[in-house]
Amino acid sequence: MEIDGIISAIFIGIIIGALGRLVVPGRQRIGVLWTIGVGIVAALIGSALATGIGVDDTKGPDWIEWLIQIGLAAVGVAALDRSKGRR
């Protein structure tokens, strides 16, 4: 992954985190910064997974890559919410 891919993953991660939070039902007990952090990590991991399976560079929008990233963000938000709820 090149530097421009990392920078775009960070910017997209902010949006991906918010979308991942919207996908998870109910109220989450995590803050906005945690959501953004989860989104950035999900975007970076999702980009790496998309590259690994060969769907990172398609003609037009990379819908599969975005779905992978949003799914990872939703899992991350739900996992972080559960870990925060146990305390």
Overview of this structure, please?
The chain is mainly alpha-helical and 87 residues long. It has one domain. Helices cover 76% and strands 0% of the residues. It has helices at residues 3-23, 32-53, 63-85. α1 (3-23) packs across α3 (63-85). The longest helix is centred in the last third of the chain and has 23 residues, at 63-85. The chain is elongated and about 40 Å long.
Give descriptors for this structure.
87 residues, 76% helix, 3 helices
Describe how the helices and strands are arranged.
Elements: H1 3-23, H2 32-53, H3 63-85
Question: In a few lines, what is going on in this structure?
Answer:
By secondary structure, this protein is mostly helical. It contains 3 helices and no strands. Helix content is 76%, strand content 0%.
Count of distinct strands: 0
Order of helices and strands: HHH
Overall SS class: mainly alpha
- Work out the count of structural domains: 1
Residue windows where pLDDT falls under 50 for at least 5 positions: none
User: How would you sum up the global shape?
Assistant: elongated
Q: What count of helical segments does DSSP give?
A: 3
Major sheet details = none
Q: What is the mean predicted local confidence, pLDDT?
A: 83
Compute the separation of the termini in Å.
Answer: 37 Å
β-strand amount: under 5%
Radius of gyration from the alpha-carbon trace, in angstroms = 13 Å
Assign a percent range to the helix content: over 70%
